[in-house]
Sequence to fold (361 residues):
Amino acid sequence: MVMSWIFTGLLALSLFASLVLGNGSALAAAVPQGARDGVNLVLSIAGSICLWSGVGKLMEVVGFTGFLSKLLSPLLHRLFPSTRQDKDLGQSLSANVCANFLGLGNAATPMGIQAAQRLAKRSEGIASDELCRLIVLNTASIQLLPANVAAVRVSLGCQTPFDILPAVWITSLCSASLGLCAAWLLGKVWRR
Amino acid sequence: MTDYIVPVLLFAACAVALRKKENAYDLMLLGAKDGLKLLVSLIPTLILLLTAVTMLRASGAMEMLSRFFAPAFSVLGIPPETAILVLVRPISGSAALALGADLMAQYGVDSLVGQTAAVMLGSTETTFYTISVYFGAAGIKKTRYTLPAALIADITGFVVASLTVRLFL
Fold:
């Protein structure tokens, strides 16, 4: 439903602007042009997306996530104290964070939902501090290789699609840590 | 340095899989098929959204919007051309991808605007969607401060993306 509003809103904005500026022919030409661009975009990112899904599958099966979660466990214990008692929670939680990190969206979401459900059991319908933290972490997107974006860049003729990586890493680290700080501060003020 | 990340990762994934006696090639094929399924589901979405975005650009509405938001965005150091991307990104992932692709094509992939759009897309998430999926599945009614905290993270992401591109790229 939200998308219907956004889509109709975009159309209304274009129509309004075009009436004000009087460039109807450009607007009319944009319709088939945009539809064609949509197909072109999908086709031009198809190669990279398929290749990275392949690599993602490998990492999933081989257990890259297990290795990563060992590295991360001290940090995760600190952020989510209940993982100390609840082993299963710890497992699905770190699998979620690691799968996100490796860009395996398909693997990350079910794991994250499992962890969220386990956390929710303790607090009947109200989000606990740990649950809020889990979700902030998931919305901040810490990702090693943003394959989709790189694929779009390649399709537009970029020679070095991954030169944005350091900037992406710094940005996600900053946004995740500030998000967690905000959650921590708000958690002090926002009692249930 | 960054040149080697991708080839090495590709090789390492295969080599580790072989060492664990997994059929690396077949697994890659299986994953690629999943990727194809994802793409097929993306085609209708991207056709619709790129139509809307191209209309927005051709009608001059995109320019109007960025001019309207320019004062607020320049205070934060965010290029005003990315205004609509910033506004849509937390709501819809595929619309953001369409907008980002349009910005990269319009201003050049290696331009300041194109790179900023790419870093923004790579380092933020579809916040509203994520929140609704997780809380929906967990049966949470009172979300307390989750949304404000997540939006603070998003805004930080947009500001830092603009800053890092200006400093490093």
